[in-house]
Amino acid sequence: MQLETGTVVRHETEGRNYRVLTLRLPLVCSTANPGQFIHLRISALHDAVLRRPFSIYRVEGDSLSILYKSVGRGTAVMQSLCPGAEVSVIGPLGNGFPVRLTPDALPVFVAGGYGVAPLYFLATRLARPGILFVGGARAADILLTSAFEALGWNVCVATEDGSMGTRGWVTVPLDAWIRTRDSVPTPEIFACGPNGMLQALALRAKQCGWKAWLSLDRHMGCGVGACLACVQRINTQDGEILVRVCKEGPVFESGTIVWEDTGNET
To answer: Distance from CA of residue 131 to its chain's centroid?
Structure first.
């Protein structure tokens, strides 16, 4: 973990409603792994006490990119950052995805909205391509499909309004694929997205006897495990314990997670 001042290299649009912010962060980039995140503070937000967490989308040399959507005051201010501007960054934080596949595993990615960003970073580090299932409310929320295809991945899209790909949740094309797939190789799931989607994937992984790695989304205060704002109950050999998503996660093996609610995606 490093405290580093990042310099804006590029700030570009991605689709209709999203942006990619690229920062020069040599120290953070030197140890960043897929599934980890950074905590960012913008000097223009003088009264903002807490930093904001962002998943790492891409690392190229000493530059790191995040993919974000303007959803509040902080991200609205971020949109004004121009090349040469400086921001304070702590990172890389948390424990990410495993990057070593078992010999017979097929990587299966499942993403909701911009949850696809950390999965793209993972795709650049895996030994072989697989299949990506990506879902969103509408076509404008489907991101990075061409980038995955350029890496040799198969891509299946679902939108809730039917404006792109299959109509419905991302589990609709996933379930169709599960019913018709070949028995070999064995899928290994990697996912990032809303809680209901992740819980639905944990159920499918259990039913099929597959391993699944899920990146949990929780409100994080400090990002370093001190404030205990993002605790999650998990199963261990010694029983249930509470862990910090920002420190022990955000990625957990699905079979260890104790779900507190039923979610809204089946």
So the answer is: 16
CB 114 within 8 A of CB 68: yes
Statement: the pTM of the whole predicted model exceeds 0.85? yes
CA nearest 183: which of 151, 212, 209? 209
Digit-by-digit pLDDT tens for the chain (266 residues) are: 899 999 999 999 998 889 999 999 999 999 999 999 999 987 655 555 568 899 999 999 999 999 999 877 778 888 889 999 999 999 999 999 999 988 889 999 999 999 999 999 999 999 999 999 999 999 999 999 999 999 999 999 999 999 999 999 999 999 999 999 887 899 999 999 999 999 999 999 999 999 999 999 888 878 888 888 899 999 999 899 999 999 999 999 999 999 986 455 56
Dist. CA 81–CA 74, nearest whole Å: 12
Count the helix, strand and coil residues of the chain and give each as a percent rounded to the nearest 5.
Answer: 20, 35, 40
**Of 24, 37, 28, which Cα lies nearest the Cα of 68?**
37
Fold of 2-93: Elongation Factor Tu (Ef-tu); domain 3 (2.40.30)
Alpha-helical (H) ranges within the chain are 26-29, 73-78, 116-123, 145-150, 171-180, 195-208
State the CB neighbour count (10 A cutoff) for residue 140. Answer: 14
Contacts of 8 (CB under 8 A, 6+ apart): 21, 22, 23, 81, 82, 83, 84, 85, 86, 87
Domain boundaries, the chain: 2-93, 105-256
